[in-house]
UniProtKB/TrEMBL annotation, chains A, B:
Binding site for Mg(2+) 3: D31, D76, D220
Organism: Hansschlegelia beijingensis
Gene name for this UniProt entry: thiL
Protein name: Thiamine-monophosphate kinase
Amino acids binding substrate: H55, D272, F327
Pathway(s) the chain acts in: Cofactor biosynthesis; thiamine diphosphate biosynthesis; thiamine diphosphate from thiamine phosphate: step 1/1
Residues binding Mg(2+) 5: D223
Pfam name, any one: AIRS_C
Other comments on record: Reaction mechanism of ThiL seems to utilize a direct, inline transfer of the gamma-phosphate of ATP to TMP rather than a phosphorylated enzyme intermediate.
Binding-site residues, ATP: G123, D124, R150, S222
GO MF term list: ATP binding; magnesium ion binding; thiamine-phosphate kinase activity
Residues of the PurM-like N-terminal domain: 30-141
Length: 330, 330
């Protein structure tokens, strides 16, 4: 970082927050904005871009690049308890693009449109002298008053996450250094799982309805569980305590952690999980768990919001020191 | 262009159109998509990106870059007869960005938010190893059934444009070659006007309500009047005849054309006008002109939609040969 320049959060706070005058912009502190619609509905809108060499590897398969660009946005739609309504995509192509590459890209979008029931609404194609990038804006429909914000949590509420945490973060490390597979003693299928989870996030749209019904606060975990739980707690003006032993991990991550203590910190602070982090009132927890079970998406109680501030992740009764705490793509 | 690779229109048709399954996507043949809202409204949504070195000069003032990125999208909102509801912006910053630059960028957005009554709703900031780029998605509200499509025109309807045509195209040429100011014998103020019109388009939002009320077909002129009129005519399954003498031009463009025949073709086929092109039923023309006059935005009858196909621009009774016809940024 250049001296005197803020990080991404500081940059947004200092430069862009003053522009977010609409109430639905939530001061740019949330995963998505809302626009009031008639008939008791709200439109949820979010945008995220991915750049070759920053958010994905230039030699990733084109269908995976397309799907990742779409899915990181659909993940925000799921986190706000909304049903996806469509998306727009802007694709910037470098000079050496090929029709083969573009066919793969479009095939990826087509597959995900089928899987998630969305349509392309519009977009733009531009040339760029720099690396390829993709910017997606996703729209979703939500019921008015049922869009859980990051700020809706309160002390005493339980914290849940979907799926498993840390796969993508370790997958990224594996991608950069294949020798880690040996160090972590991974089976071939475990290695593939971690690599796949980095390549292709899984937006938890199957849980949208239940998020809308039960979550008092929600966000998707894109910058690491520790940092993102800290963001949700801060937005809710409280603290969070997470029990590391309860954080759901895949067999692959568990094996990596057995052989490499640093893998635990990487799993808890690395990015690209795209799982949901939800605050649930303890009285609602049984019904929430019961309804979530029917979706086939695992939800796990990992801790609670507490009075005070900050995020503490305990392991065997002692707070873990996770260093910087949060991953940032910026 | 590399052999075998389609141009932008061909690329959209071949690769992206099959993905546009929602009716509101209008097969990606329009300036914006619509999403049905309740209460007799439609949400209009559009996205356009600008890349340094392609759509603007890297040394353009940062406030002008920000405003251009926003305005090219607001222009699409105006073309669909909608009132702007807000926008999202993704900004990709190269390594050497400075807080001074970003302050200028944000000041530009703030000024336009004030001018056009919109709020930032959300966005993304990313790093890029390539040139700076800005992607904006704009949202607007329209009355159901009052979103003029490119395809709504019919033979016999009049064609109108707002403002003046060709300023930005000549401004771009001046920017690239200052000696043209001498060749075109431009006064200092005329030169400044052309440069400004390239730098800062003027979205015609003041005309939105009247566009919604009267236009049978509409689009914004971003890729040159000749080519864009051809697109509107083709979408409406008819042809268009435009009288070059009636196309409204600034004193600066008129002077350039006096001294340089090539300037006329540049004005009629160059891009970046961001004026509106509207088809109006002849019976509605007087009321349309009367109501438009009250907005202070000039509207000029330049020709008509006709049976058949293609676009013809006549000068002194003879069709002009404009060469390639349409400018494309791609």
């Amino acid at each position: 970082m250049t001296v005197g320049r803020p990080d991404e959060a500081g940059l947004i706070a200092r430069f862009f927050r003053p522009l977010a005058t609409a109430p639905g912009a939530a001061l740019l502190l949330d995963d998505a904005a809302t626009v009031p619609a008639d008939g008791g509905r709200e439109l949820v809108v979010t945008t995220d871009a991915i750049v070759a060499g920053i958010h994905f590897f230039p030699d990733d398969p084109p269908d995976a690049i397309a799907r990742k660009a779409l899915r990181v946005n659909l993940s925000d739609i799921a986190a706000k308890g909304a049903a996806p309504a469509g998306y727009l995509v802007t694709l910037a192509l470098p000079q050496d693009w090929t029709t083969d590459w573009l066919e793969g890209f479009v095939d990826g979008l087509a597959a995900d449109q089928e899987e998630f029931g969305v349509s392309l609404l519009g977009g733009d194609t531009v040339r760029t002298p720099g690396p390829l990038w993709v910017s997606v804006t996703a729209l979703g429909h939500a019921q008015e008053g049922h869009v859980p914000r990051r700020s809706g949590g309160a002390p005493g509420q339980r914290l849940y996450v979907t799926g498993t945490i840390g796969d993508a973060a370790l997958g990224l490390r594996l991608r950069r250094d294949e020798r880690l597979a040996l160090r972590w003693d991974l089976r071939r299928a475990e290695k593939e799982l971690l690599l796949d989870r980095y390549l292709l996030p899984e937006p938890r749209l199957g849980l949208s309805r239940i998020v809308a019904a039960y979550a008092t606060a929600a966000m998707d975990v894109s910058d690491g569980l520790a940092g993102d739980a800290g963001k949700l707690a801060a937005a809710s003006r409280c603290g969070a305590v997470i029990d590391a032993a309860r954080v759901p991990v895949s067999r692959a991550v568990a094996r990596a952690v057995e052989h490499d203590e640093a893998a635990l910190a990487a799993a808890l602070t690395g990015g690209d999980d795209y799982e949901l982090l939800l605050a649930i009132d303890p009285g609602d927890a049984p019904a929430f768990e019961f309804e979530a079970a029917a979706t086939g998406i695992a939800v796990t109680d990992i801790g609670a919001l507490v009075e005070g501030g900050g995020i503490e992740i305990d392991r065997q009764g002692r707070p873990l020191d996770l260093g910087r705490g949060s991953f940032t793509h910026f």
